[in-house]
Amino acid sequence: MSDFNLGLVGVGKIVRDQHLPAIAATPNCHLVASADPFASLPDLPAYQDLEAMLDAHPEITAVSICTPTHLRYSQARAALMRGKHVLLEKPPGATLSEVEDLIACAKEQGVSLFAAWHSRFAPGVAQAQQWLAERQVQRVEVEWKEDVRVWHPGQAWIWQPGGMGVFDPGINALSIATAILPQPFFLQQARLLVPSNAQTPIAADLTFTDPQGASIEAAFDFRQSGPPTWDMHIHSDGSRLSLTQGGCRLVIDDELIIEEEEREYQGLYARFAELIANKRSEVDVAPLRQVADAFLYGHRESTEAFIE
Q1: Taking the alpha carbons of 44, 46, 49, 54 in that order, is the dihedral positive or negative?
Q2: What is the pLDDT of residues 215-229, one digit of tens each?
Q3: Of 90, 107, 145, 279, which is the active-site residue?
Q4: pTM for this entry
Q5: Does the annotation count 90 as an active-site position?
Q6: Which domains, and CATH codes, for the chain?
């Protein structure tokens, strides 16, 4: 597989926690520079913006866009128009229309565009998908809860339009569900709890179904204290599949199938390299569509103000 030279756009918490270790573990990926008006990385050329980085380093062939959601479209489009392959942190855009335009732009430019649903690369997801492929699902229970002060410290943008609030982690659950459930599913009702000083929800209760009438319930909450809960339980044909710890642990009918350390971003960058080598794009908007449906169809309730 051919090597590629990477530029990072945005160097916040997710880059430091996840992208940098994954890039270091990807032999054919060479980190060249970063672009961020507020932060930089040690021993790496740093620039105020994407254009300055690309002007200074024409050898960059691919960029990872890791900025807040509302900034991603313009940055991704600029990179695509300069012939660069683009990895988009999740979600791939603030709106579905933005993502559709990026898909078309990548196709016109003949470069790869990758919507990086990292939770799909958790150790147990592929085997869960395979096990469920020929089964009929009767019931699904999803619980995705974490402490926003631990996982998103100081990230005020998450409470603004486009920031998605609790759907920022919740979309990880939806990315897994849309990948492993054998039938498409759609929203029936949603209850969104929105702090009085915010524009996006701090908690959400969602009810879905599929064409076969399955009962699919999801509870997302940013107010959990202590360790996070990232679990889903799927009842199918008299059996029970549990995918817990964000997909790191898979149990089927009380038998432990997989329990491994999280390595999602290594899988992401390996997949990005494969897409570049094969001149392909991979952009699935299904998880973002589910979030859009919740905002469109959900009942909003005001709750107490969020104080960092």
Answers
A1: negative
A2: 999 999 999 999 999
A3: 90
A4: 0.96
A5: yes
A6: 4-116 (3.40.50.720), 120-260+292-303 (3.30.360.10)
